[in-house]
Design brief:
This protein has 15 helices and no strands. By secondary structure, it is mainly α. The protein starts with 13 loop residues before the first helix and ends with a helix.
Length: 289
């Protein structure tokens, strides 16, 4: 008796096949929609001013090695100073926000005291308020304290309580056994030592998630930086530097696109080298519960 290997081909029903086709078609469509602005920006950044005014936005430039727009954008928009200021702001804001957020989450999660639930509800209520609606009050407070037009004042304001991060930390901390705290407390550790040496290292995935969310928000923030850092020559940041090329006489989009590509490169480099930690933090820190 001859043995024959029978290869079975997977057949799809018409409805299942249509569903698969629609799924991949939608993925291709939304990928195309997402990449078109970036491609247009990249093409425009290599065009001379004459090419920009006389060609379509998707027409490739004659010279892909023309870097005059990048040099002009970097120099005229003072982007060196802008990157330095943005780096200083990100370092102090993220460091302060992580320390404040994790310590608040530690207190709310590990200590049962009168008003604990009230504080959590107030945080939830504060997260529902639009930030733009509170800017008049915040501006008056900043003005009375003399913090406007100072880098440290903007850092203090941006370092404020990040509600989303606190909920991420609290949610993740619920999966850390309280027995670790009790064992350390019996061995003579203080509450601060428990927080610093036990809780904080275990919150690494949640911290990465918070760093990504907070960092992107601070790096791209335009309204607050434009309002509170009024001396653009000395206190300009990346988000406000690109508006150097806009004005009543028109906008020079070839310089703007070059500046966008320059400002995009640091975030791209960080993402390439830290994508493993970022994905791990988002998947572990944001959905645990």
């Amino acid at each position: 008796m001859k043995s024959a290997s029978i290869r079975t081909k997977k057949h799809y029903e018409p409805k299942a096949l249509l569903s698969i086709v629609l799924k991949y078609a939608s993925l291709l469509f939304f990928t195309f929609v997402a990449l078109i602005p970036l491609a247009s920006c990249l093409i425009t950044s290599f065009k001379t001013e004459e090419e920009y005014y006389h060609t379509n936005v998707m027409t490739p430039p004659e010279n892909w090695f023309y870097f005059g727009n990048f040099i002009s954008a970097f120099q005229k928009a003072n982007m060196g100073r802008a990157f330095l200021n943005s780096g200083i702001i990100l370092f102090f804001v993220l460091s302060g926000a992580i320390l404040i957020g994790t310590s608040l989450a530690y207190v709310l999660n590990r200590f049962d005291f009168p008003g604990n639930q009230l504080i959590r509800q107030l945080f939830l209520f504060a997260s529902l308020l639009p930030g733009i609606a509170m800017q008049v009050t915040v501006y008056k407070v900043m003005m009375s304290l003399g913090l406007i037009n100072h880098l440290y004042g903007y850092i203090i304001m941006s370092m404020g309580t990040d509600i989303i991060s606190i909920y991420i930390f609290v949610q993740y901390m619920e999966n850390i056994s309280v027995s670790l705290d009790e064992s350390a407390f019996i061995d003579g550790a203080s509450y601060f030592q428990i927080y610093w040496k036990i809780i904080l290292p275990l919150l690494k995935p949640a911290i990465v998630t918070s760093l990504v969310l907070k960092g992107v928000g601070v790096y791209n923030e335009y309204y607050a930086s434009n309002l509170y850092l009024q001396d653009k020559d000395r206190l300009g940041v990346v988000a406000t530097a690109l508006y150097t090329f806009t004005g009543p006489m028109g906008s020079k989009y070839n310089f703007i696109c070059a500046g966008v590509i320059i400002s995009f490169l640091p975030a791209l480099i960080i993402f390439i080298f830290c994508q493993k930690q970022i994905y791990s933090g988002i998947t572990q820190g944001a959905v645990k519960g």
